[in-house]
Design a protein that fits this description.
The chain is of the alpha/beta class and 660 residues long. It has a domain of 234 residues: MetI-like fold. The protein is built from 22 helices and 13 strands. A hairpin with a 5-residue loop joins strand 12 and strand 13. Helix 3 runs parallel beside helix 6, helix 3 runs antiparallel to helix 8 and helix 3 packs parallel to helix 10. The two termini are 59 Å apart.
């Protein structure tokens, strides 16, 4: 835990330090350093000179003795300007702190309250945001009274609504992340989820916003003091000096111009530094140990023995070898295991489909293979090798380097996978810059080549466009292009065609097949659609309740499936011969809950062939005489004549013709 925290702190420090390497960041950092140094040192160094009155030098203009001139009491305005830095910056930072604290409270309350109370707080914040900040500050200044304390509270509460609105947006976005759902599933309370899982992930943008807000508070405070609502005599800040200098602006303009310049310079220092950091945070800094590494966790012996009884034949050319893969999340009533003892291998140039209903463990299996299962999830396996390298051994950095260059993932919704604020070229180039050490020019050239490879026209022009300027099919192809920025040995495609029309589906699937054939890339295609998988893949893995229940050639789907669940899935697929006057076939019952997997075969409650043995013992995945692997006590092909989709019949005929 301590190592993880140190790594996180190191990464955050590296990202903030990167802001200083940009021209704007370096200049603004120097400006901010000088302002803060002056705020600390000036009162101790020059308070005497600033308060010294000289009746012989009243209202003098700039001179060698008085660089900015003197005021109505003969006091040196240059030294007063330097000393005023302390009070101006101190009060601005105090107001910013109050605004940030109040904004955090208002922004996080909806996540802790019930829905009705949360909506009420959100509505209050939305109404407050609609008012101009300076108007709110003046309103609160009247309520809290004239003076430093009232002005600090007024500006703090005036800036709180905008900060609260940002916090609400960031918290709401994080609540949709998978690891937050896993924490909720594990029984973690709302407050603990907020403090432990959400706040660390939104800290950076909040800190950047607070830095920029400090500059705005500085300007607002100077404005209130100028209007006579802020600092009162005998104290003085830049706004008070501006107010005093305005009376004689035509005779003595530097008395008003100097504090104005001080406010502008200090405000720019805060704002530019915040902007530089915000821009730098958009460029990830390479670091070791990023992402969750698989963890070995103990498994129940009974389950382990059933999953390891039948192992697939070893393949010397295997890209991926998985043995007894488990994914476990802690739950209020015990461990929740959405993946239970999955075993298979994948050879170079082989396309394997994974099918099953929602909740069968397909996506969790893919995430575990890519090491994307977030805490508190735990991944274990007796063997997990990718390109002959043990994924439980070595350093996290080495694993991420291997996966980043040799494994590609194509997600269901590329719009959520692409950053909407970054150009497509920048996002594709980032892969080559980070994992292949290319410079920006070479990486962009590689990105254009990859877009051309996935048949996107005018690739150089498309590199400059944003994701929303691409159609759905083009975004999916660009996602595949990002995956092949390196030289992937394996592409995991998780429902890559769900949101696409049939024409674009065919294009995307054809593209994956072309990449597989030309580059000898293995493909793991996850889908609900047996017809689609049967057309693209050579082998099909059928998953139910976190286990592989059947492993068979794709050509055997048309009438050769052995497991009742596979047969039921095939029967539920409509085709051109389906009688429209008859209700569509469905699988009765509901999939089993991963937190309450029944004893015996998980499909027994929905199976027409279930016996007493099925409810007592879980069948092992064993190899049959025809080479199929099936986990069933009663495997048979007496399907009850389910309608086999025409597409599968045609695909099976093609495969048989190729074999002959």
């Amino acid at each position: 835990m301590r190592t993880s925290r140190n790594a996180n702190a190191s990464r955050m420090g590296a990202r903030w330090l990167a802001a200083l390497t940009t021209p704007v960041g370096a200049v603004s950092a120097v400006m901010l350093f000088l302002v803060l140094t002056m705020a600390v040192a000036a009162p101790a160094l020059w308070s005497g000179q600033a308060e010294e009155m000289n009746t012989k030098a009243i209202l003098q203009g700039p001179s060698a003795e008085h660089l900015v001139g003197t005021d109505s009491l003969g006091r040196d305005l240059f030294f007063r300007l330097l000393v005023a830095t302390s009070l101006s910056v101190k009060l601005a930072l105090a107001a910013t702190g109050i605004g940030v604290l109040a904004g955090l409270v208002l922004g996080t309350l909806p996540a802790l309250m019930n829905r009705r109370a949360g909506r009420f707080v959100t509505a209050i914040v939305n109404i407050a945001v609609a008012f101009p900040g300076l108007l709110l500050a003046m309103f609160f200044a009247v309520i809290f009274g004239v003076g430093e304390t009232g002005a600090v509270l007024a500006i703090g509460f005036a800036t709180a609504p905008s900060f609260a609105r940002l916090t609400q947006t960031l918290v709401a976005a994080q609540k949709e992340r998978d690891f937050i759902s896993a924490a909720e599933l594990a029984g973690v309370g709302r407050l603990k989820r907020l403090l432990r899982h959400i706040m660390p992930n939104i800290a950076e943008p909040l800190v950047v916003t607070a830095t920029i807000g400090a500059g705005s508070s500085l300007l607002a405070f100077a404005g209130l003091s100028f209007l006579g609502l802020g600092v009162q005599p005998p104290s003085y800040d830049w706004g008070r000096l501006l107010n005093e200098g305005l009376n004689d602006i035509y005779l003595h303009p530097m008395a008003a111009l100097a504090p104005s310049l001080a406010v502008i310079i200090a405000g720019l220092a805060f704002n530019l530094f915040g902007e530089a950091v915000a821009k730098t945070l958009g460029t990830p800094v390479a670091a070791a140990g990023k992402g969750a590494a698989p963890l070995r966790v103990p498994r129940p012996a009974a389950v382990e023995s059933s999953t390891t009884a039948d192992r697939t034949a070893e393949n010397d050319d295997a890209v991926l070898t998985v043995r007894d893969l488990f994914v476990t999340f802690p739950g209020p009533a015990g461990p929740i295991t959405p993946v239970r003892g999955v075993s298979f291998s994948l050879a170079r140039g082989e396309a394997v489909g994974v099918v099953g209903e929602s909740g069968s463990g397909k996506t969790q299996t893919a995430l575990a293979l890519a090491q994307l299962v977030d805490y508190p999830g735990q991944v274990s396996a007796s063997r997990l090798e990718f390109l002959a390298q043990d994924q439980f051994a070595g350093t996290a950095r080495a694993r991420r380097q291997l996966l980043g260059t040799s494994l590609a993932m194509v997600f269901q919704d590329p719009m959520k996978s692409f950053n909407p604020t970054m150009r497509i070229g920048t996002q594709l180039a980032e892969v080559a810059i980070r994992h292949q050490g290319m410079n920006r020019r070479s990486a962009l050239a590689r990105a254009a080549d990859r877009l051309r490879a996935v048949r996107i026209p005018a690739p150089k022009r498309r590199l400059r466009q944003y994701p929303h300027e691409f159609s759905g099919g083009m975004r999916q192809r660009a996602m595949i292009g990002m995956g092949i920025m390196g030289s992937p040995a394996l592409i995991i495609a998780d429902e890559p065609t769900t949101a696409l029309d049939v024409t674009v589906q065919r294009q995307v699937l054809g593209l994956l097949s072309t990449i597989k054939e030309e580059d000898n890339v293995a493909i793991l295609l996850i889908s609900h659609d047996l017809t689609l998988v049967g057309q693209v893949c050579e082998r099909v893995l059928v998953m139910y309740a976190g286990r592989i229940v059947e492993d068979l050639p794709a050509g055997d789907l048309a009438g050769q499936a052995l497991h009742p669940y596979t047969q039921a899935l095939l029967a539920a697929v409509p085709n051109m011969e389906t009688d429209r006057d008859v209700p569509l076939a469905v699988i009765p019952g509901r999939p089993s809950d991963p937190s309450q997997v029944p004893v015996g075969c998980a499909f027994a409650a929905r199976c027409t062939k279930a016996s007493e043995l099925c409810t007592r013992e879980d069948p092992q995945l064993v190899r049959q005489e025809d080479g199929h692997r099936v986990a069933c006590w009663h495997p048979s092909r007496d399907v009850g004549a389910p309608p086999i989709p025409m597409e599968l019949k045609m695909h099976a005929a093609v495969l048989q013709g190729d074999a002959s």
